[in-house]
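During the reporting period the student researcher (J.K.) took over the structure-prediction task from the postdoctoral fellow and processed the backlog of single-chain submissions. One of the processed entries is reproduced below for the supervisory committee.
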Amino acid sequence: MSPYRFSHALGYTLEQMSEMHNASFRGYFMPVEMTPEMTADFWRTNNIDALRSVIMHNEGGTFVGMARMGTRGKRGWCGGFGIVPELRGSGASRLLAEQMVRVAREGGLSTLQLEVLTQNARARKLYERVGFTTTRRLLGLEITSTVLPAGAPIRVERVAVEALLPRLMSGGRPCWGCEPSTILAVAAEAVVLPGASGQLNGVIVQRGQRASILASFFDSGLPDTELTALLRQAAGDADGLVVFNEPEESPCLARYRALGFSEFFSQDEMWLTL
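J.K. obtained the following structure tokens:
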């Protein structure tokens, strides 16, 4: 008999969910402390499903780990998988991963996806053991506003985010956190610049201390000076720009690097057909 017990996340408070997140991700490569407000925002924007999210305790009722799961249609996404530090390497993570897959399959999902930091070889091997395969690499890029070149004196336009969604959906498969469902759920702005060939260049950006680029569309003929000016307008008063989970095959990647963006993390996107 297993020494662990599984339940779903329905019924826990935001405070409890934050405490469980912080306990299970303590000491990881990129630990993020979650407040109740951050937890609520994360669940809302990523369509986290409480009934398919797995909470793990031992027989004595002590919290062991969690696997959050977002759902969109028949697709599932593991939006956070963690085991408390004292039980890592004990086999508990394998049991949690198997339960996560079981819940997804029995819940009628057809696919399950996740992202894992490239340097986290142990986690990647765990996911492979329960059936996941790596599909592509996702990169995080950043640049400070002072490093970004000045750019050309051009006038950009601000349009409704919805106006760029058709371009987003035709520009290849974005990662989960950059899909329309997420973009429409956050306070984002769209900044565009018409290209010489009539194509629309633009970025969808979320404001903060650093401005996060959620999606970008650049005409191959757009000069670097105009692209830089577009990005400066998108950054506004922020300290810099950050791009999360840009697919390695993205045509925008080389443009970002040529302008001085540097890589600060990478992830492997993994999928499982259920």
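The committee noted the following: The longest strand covers residues 133-144.
J.K. will present the remaining backlog at the next meeting.
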